[in-house]
Amino acid sequence: MWAPAYAVADELASWLGVDEDTDQLVLAIDAASRAIDRACSRQFGRTDSQTRYYAPQWHRDRWTVSTDDICTEPVVEVEGTVVDVTLLPRNAPAKGRPWTRIEYTGPRGEVAVTAEFGWANVPYPIKYATLVQASRFYDRRENVAGALNKHRVDDVEYGWAASGNQELDADVLASVAPFKRWWAAA
């Protein structure tokens, strides 16, 4: 399933020590999952088999294609002809990661890749980050301004954690950083 929730309500309820508000827990998990997608520039779900199209770039002596995350062996066609490819990074499956590039020699043209896209499994740091961020979102239902992070009584200075410049918790950002997808422009 593409764009799934990276945790379930029972996991978040256990994390928070509550046994209520299942609908609100689900909302918090879904919001946290999508925030993590944005922070990583990728999704950790998995599609059914489908075909996606890409434009290759000539690099040294072969064609290179930056693809969406691929989690199953693809069938690659260039202008209707199946071509043999090298999937990169080569050690991705051994590390529990998807392939993100294809190299091949052969004809020039639009590249059709048929595969299951996404990740075979949601990585544990992503699940952890989802629970941390979802618990923060869930707590916001009690205090929409966020947690107080500064306090000064004389001359009245208050500061709220919900500043517009940081969407994710710092621990979440640290947990998801190794999974950030950097896209290069040609």
Structure overview:
By secondary structure, the protein is an alpha+beta fold. The protein folds into 2 domains: 9-44 and 122-179, no CATH class; 50-115. Helices cover 27% and strands 25% of the residues. Strands 1-8-4-5 form a 4-stranded antiparallel sheet, with no helix packed on it. It has a 4-stranded antiparallel sheet with strand order 2-3-7-6, with no helix packed on it. Strand 9 and strand 10 form a beta hairpin. Helix 2 (22-40) packs across helix 3 (124-139) and helix 3 (124-139) packs antiparallel against helix 4 (170-176). The chain is elongated. The relative contact order is 0.20. The mean pLDDT is 87.
Task: Write out key terms for the chains shown.
186 residues; alpha+beta; 2 domains; four-stranded antiparallel β-sheet; 10 strands; elongated
What is the alpha-carbon Rg in Å?
21 Å
Form type: elongated
Strand content: 15-25%
Q: What is the number of E strands?
A: 10
Short description:
The chain is built from 4 helices and 10 strands, in the order ααββββββββαββα.
Describe how the helices and strands are arranged.
Blueprint: H1 9-16, H2 22-40, E1 50-54, E2 57-59, E3 62-70, E4 75-78, E5 81-82, E6 86-88, E7 99-104, E8 111-115, H3 124-139, E9 148-152, E10 157-160, H4 170-176
Antiparallel strand pairs: 1-8, 2-3, 3-7, 4-5, 4-8, 6-7, 9-10
Helix pairs in contact: 1-2, 2-3, 3-4
